[in-house]
Each structure stands twice: as structure tokens, then as C-alpha cells.
Write a structure and sequence with these properties.
The protein has helices spanning 21-25, 37-43, 52-83, 105-116, 137-143, 157-168, 233-248, 267-290; strands at 16-20, 93-99, 125-129, 174-180, 185-194, 199-203, 225-230, 299-303, 309-315. The chain is of the alpha/beta class and 317 residues long. Helix 3 crosses helix 4 and helix 7 (233-248) crosses helix 8. The longest helix is centred in the first third of the chain and has 32 residues, at 52-83. The radius of gyration is 21 Å and the shape is globular.
Amino acid sequence: MYGVTAIDPTLPLSPYREIDRADWARLAAGIDQPLTETEVVGIRGIGDRLDITEVREVYLPLSRLLSLYASSTRRLGAATSEFLQESDTTTPFVVGVAGSVAVGKSTIARLLRELMSRWPGTPRVELVTTDGFLYPNAELERRGLMDRKGFPESYDRRALLSFLTEVKSGAAEVRAPFYSHMRYDIVPDAHVVVRRPDVVIVEGLNVLQPPPAPNDVAVSDLFDFSIFVDADVAHIERWYIDRFLALRQSAFSNPSSYFNVFAHLSDDEAVTTALGFWNEINMPNLVENVMPTKHRATLVLRKGAEHAVESVQLRKV
């Protein structure tokens, strides 16, 4: 007679494996570091503290895991085509990267693009940000949404779904709108062009949002793997303010910048302005819309106060 192992009711059940930083870092053993310190500095965003150690211990194992998922997905696609007695119709492997403003998701997306392109099975990797699918400022003004830029309703969800559907359908060429952070707006007649790469990374605040209606398709339904970059709200607030102060002395100082009006603020005025944006726009969006989607991710990177990843949660297969 077979015995049945009782489940301890005192232990919390979770669909995720919980992996601390030290255990995750050990997974990098034997994997060559493909990036130089100079390359890492070029990838790092304003306010991030990404260094070669963080790349080796956190993102190198993650890129290897993504490579394994991509290879497995490609093999499954080929096997399915063989079963159906048709030519192989394998399409790009799509990775979603979600998280708050200032949490470092853009840096992570750029870094993964570089790392994944070094693996033999995925040499062609493209990165698309959902900023390009924001409605143009004129349309946001018309809809009364300029103060809710970044909230789910400020995006052209249908255009994003159409773009990803074409990518996953294997279209030879797909175009996405281009967003200028300098102009803080969509650039007319400018595009990001994707030509059947091995991997497409889609980075944005709300890429893990559930569908607006039960019968609708979610953007994340078209992902093969998704990552959520997590941190305490208090830490993200500090990072947001620090980044605003850094931008005031760099990008904002450009006369062509939409935010040039903030370039000459004093430190105290800049902190007050940044806190206003955070408390009125970014923090409510994070709490109401972004944080609740964390459980939809395949993998969660949990950052500590100094921007370093402290633990990893990987959904059980």
C-alpha cells in the first residue's frame, strides 16, 4: 500500500520557488562573463548601481535560464509542426519585463538583450518599450489623461496587441511607434522595426495587466516568459527622487527637453517637485495597477535598498 505524505498546514503554499541571492549566484558557476565593465557602465541607467558582480551573480544565470526556455519553446514548436505535418513555423520568443518607474526595469531589459544575444541559440534579440504605445500627447490632452500618463488607460492597448500578434505570427517585419523621452511624446513617422528576431523583449509598466474584460486578450498572453522587478515602495520613492535630481543636471538641461523648465530648480525645489509627481501620479499607479500584477510573472526579482537583487522567485513549471 502506498503512503501519502501529509501537507504541513502551517507552511504557506506558493506557486513560486524562493531562491535567495547566494543560491542563485551559485548557478553562474562555470558560465563565462561575456560583458566588460565598460559595457556594463554603458548599459546602466541613471540612478542604477549595476556592476560587473551584479551581472555575474544575478543576470548571467537569468540569461541562461531564458536561453533554456527559448530553446525548449523552439523545440516544442518544431515538434508540433512535425506532428501537424507542416513546415516549421517557429516564431520569436517573447519576454515581458514589468515593474515600477525608477525600479531599474529598463536597465534590466537592455542588459538581458546584450546577454541573450551572446548565447548560441538566440543571436538576434530586439528590445521594444511600451512607451511607444502611449497615446500622443495631443490625444492624451483630448482625453484628459495627461496627468495619468503611464496609467493603463494612457496606452493604445489595441496597437500593442496588434504589434505582438504580428510578432508571434511570424511576420517578416513589424513596426512599433517611437517614443522620445526628450520630447516626452511619440515622434511622428519614426518607428522601431522588428524583423523576425530570435527573441523580443517587451519592457513597460503595465505589460502584465489582466485583460479589461473576461473575453479580451491580455498583452501577457503573448509572452513566453515574464519578469517582474520588485522592491519596497519606500525604496522606489527614494530612487525616483534621486533619478529626478540626476536628470535635472543632465537630460533636463538640454534646451530641447520637455522638462527643461525643471533644470534650474534648487535642490529643495527639485525634491518637492519630484515628490509631487511621485505622490500624485507614479505611486498611485504603482499601488493600483503595477504591484497587483506581480503574481502574473514567471519570475520576480526582489531588490533591496541599494538596488541589488536580494532574492529570486521562479514560478514552478
